[in-house]
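Observation: inputs received (chain + zinc ion).
Thought: call the complex predictor directly.
Action: predict_structure
Action Input:
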Amino acid sequence: MTSKKPKQPKPQSIRITRDAFDFIAHAARNTDPDEFVGMLRQNRRGIIDTILIIPLSEYGSGFSSINLNMVPALSDSCGSIHSHPGAPPLPSQADRLFFSRMGGVHLIIASPYDDRSIRGYDDAGAPLGVEIV
Ligand SMILES: [Zn+2]
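Observation:
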């Protein structure tokens, strides 16, 4: 046995404006039972305030994908959002792979698409808090 503790990352939250959250919830409801997917952009204060809809994204049942060739400027986006209709807001294996390739922060929202059904993750798939501000 070792007493060495794993390094604790400092607690972090993803902050998102109420307007941006409402947009996500509305889009996810409208796309249900298919998945909604988009990219996130933050303002100068580090708060996500814009959802980018990427042309030629595929919204499927149980999957969705972003066509990365259509993302105008990846450096300008800080992560992604997608929905999980009928499943908990937990990252799948494919989600984790996508998060690690994209970097940044990622949101998953599940039905019923409200304040309590959204979860945040870092690029390694570790949970982050979500604050709607
Ligand atoms: Zn997913």
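Thought: report the result.
Final Answer: The chain has one domain: 13-132. The two ends are 43 Å apart (CA to CA).
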